[in-house]
Amino acid sequence: MTKIVKGLLIVAIATSSLIAAKINGAGASFPAPLYYDWAYQYQKETHNKVNYQSIGSGGGIKQISNRIVNFGASDKPLKTKKLTKKKLYQFPAVIGSIVVALNVPGIKDEQLKLTNENVADIFAGKITKWNDAALTANNEGVSLPDEKIIVCHRSDGSGTTFNFTYYLSESSTNWKNNFGTGKAIDWPAGIGGKGNEGVANLVKQTPFAIGYIENAYKVKNKLAAATLQTKSGKWVTATEEHFKAAAKYASWTKEDNFYALLALQPGDTSYPIVAATFILLPMEKTEMNKKVIAFYEHSFINGDAAAKRLGYIPLPKETKDLIRSYWKDKGLIK
Fold first, then answer.
1. Residue among 278, 132, 103, 125 nearest 201 (CA)
2. How far apart are CA 64 and CA 158, in angstroms?
3. Where are the alpha helices (DSSP H) in 239-312?
4. Is there a shared CATH topology between the 2-96+252-260+274-329 domain and the 98-247 domain?
5. Beta bridge pairs of residue 152
């Protein structure tokens, strides 16, 4: 609202906008669909705005390390030594899963079975045709074409890549010895896309493609995904039941700043590529940290339904309570 008094232009600003918080975060694309939903609900209920940029975990770590944003987000957890060096706090926000999505004409969702070693060999460029004997062996009755496999991977620094390559390293000696685990690696084959969004779009638009993406992007884009194997060798599909079966083995401690990798957990029903995603806060920004924490506390209380709807697994109550205890230890809540 504006008015003119004795020739002066006076701009009247609503009191609520003066006190409303504006929070800027950036990082992992893995949880981005959920953070957008949580931010929308938070603004609707509190008038506080949360801007989140999906730029990849590598970008999120870099921006919070340089204090460009108020919080960073990463699917690759940082160990205590690095957190201390960068003067950061860390806690998990939600659990998600990585699926092996594919676009093979005639192959439906969950129809194709891939062993964990099959997946590693495809991304290593060892298996190059869809009708390779290694793939047909577990797919009797499935018509696999004599076509080249188009591998789609991330082109940016990515926590999704970190968790996926950790899974590949645990599944294949060849992968572990030649490529290893990392946010970015020298891919032996394929084409790159930026963010989970980019890889999902590549798979969707490219016949005979295969790629790794967070489950929410598979659901959003209505893509097919492979049936994979548990650590014990049982076949499992990408469902909430199987994600939760793996997530229950997460072992969090405040002392380790919640550092945990969740791929290939025990159990005959545990989906093999499950991962948590983490929030990074600068130690010295106490007042802003309290505003960020207020957003995540609101989301912990009110956001579980949205998480489930989008294909994520909410943190268990015990984990949320442990996080609240961590916040209290750091002087961020009373």
1. 103
2. 15
3. 240-247, 286-302, 304-309
4. yes
5. 191, 211
pTM value > 0.90: no
Q: Which two tokens stand for residue 197?
A: 């969004």
For the domain made up of 98-247, give the CATH fold.
D-Maltodextrin-Binding Protein; domain 2 (3.40.190)
Cα(327)–Cα(130) distance, integer angstroms? 50
CATH of 2-96+252-260+274-329, one of 3.40.190.10, 3.40.30.10, 3.10.310.30, 3.20.20.70: 3.40.190.10
Q: pLDDT tens-digit profile of 217-255?
A: 999 999 999 999 999 999 999 998 999 999 989 889 999
In angstroms, the Cα distances linking 186 to 24, 55, 155, 161, 190 are 32, 20, 10, 12, 11
Q: Where are the domains of the chain?
A: 2-96+252-260+274-329, 98-247
Among 302, 289, 283, which residue's Cα sits nearest to residue 21?
Answer: 289
Burial class (CB in 10 A: 0-12, 13-18, 19+), 206: middle
* CA–CA separation, 183 and 168 (whole Å): 13
Please tell me the distance from the alpha carbon of residue 214 to that of residue 114, in angstroms, as a whole number.
18
pLDDT, tens only, 158-203: 999 999 999 999 999 999 999 999 999 999 989 999 999 999 999 9
